[in-house]
Amino acid sequence: EGQEMVFRALAPLGDEYLAALRKGFEDRWADVYENDGKRSGAYSFGSYDSYPYVLLNYKDRLQDVFTVVHEMGHSMHSWYTRRTQPFVYGGHSIFTAEVASTVNESLLMRYLIDNAKDEKEKASLLNMYLEEFRTTLFRQTQFAEFEKKAHEMAESGEVLTSEAMCGMYGELNARYYGPAVTYDDLIKLEWSRIPHFYNSFYVYQYSTGYSAATAISSLILEKGEPAAAAYLEFLRSGSSDYPIELLKIAGVDMSKPQPVEAAAARFEELLAELEAIAG
Q1: Within 13 Å and on the Cβ side, how many CA atoms surround 277?
Q2: Interval 80-105: pLDDT, tens
Q3: Catalytic residue among 71, 98, 105, 132
Q4: What's the CA gap between 212 and 129, in Å, rounded?
């Protein structure tokens, strides 16, 4: 049932994409269920000449369908790239790595909202979508600013004590969320449990990737086959050019503010839609 939901949602990408995706399920790219000694979480991984394997733990929840569509987005990106590019260009840069997965998520979410059986279900989906924007576009930008400031402290010779890091994180959190939020004092410790901070400058690409993916999914739904074809060409491009240039193939120019502004505007539209339902 989850697979069929994915196929229906990704139908705008065209028959070629769906056929390859179906073959991926049939060829058992995904390690689906929990098992002894199996780790939690989910990811897509493989070598240049292997299947783009997926690890996840599927429990028949809607959230698990989103995990499937996300990780298969990664794997389809790898599949298209490795069939087209030589080994040297067979990977993906940090700037493009989360685009394909998030395009799939966006298409699934918009399909579910458009086909919600009643207002209650639609409101639940809208709330879920808004949370995706908050945690990916907004929160990851906050994370990126914290990381930048921490590196600037180190570069200027300041000592990175836990007290200094907590103080900086608490101030950023208050500035980003404003006075309407009630703060637990423990929020200032949150930075210490974010594993990405221990890999320099990674988190920013969640925000840029989400903005690009929101723009690309809108193009596909609005313009149909030409936009889908351009997107598949992007998937085939691997790391054969600079990331900004590769995204232009799919119709998005991340050197300009429009994709980020459009994503923020989309958030406003979704919020207004939820408020209208809530009355």
Answers
A1: 17
A2: 999 999 999 999 998 999 999 999 99
A3: 71
A4: 16
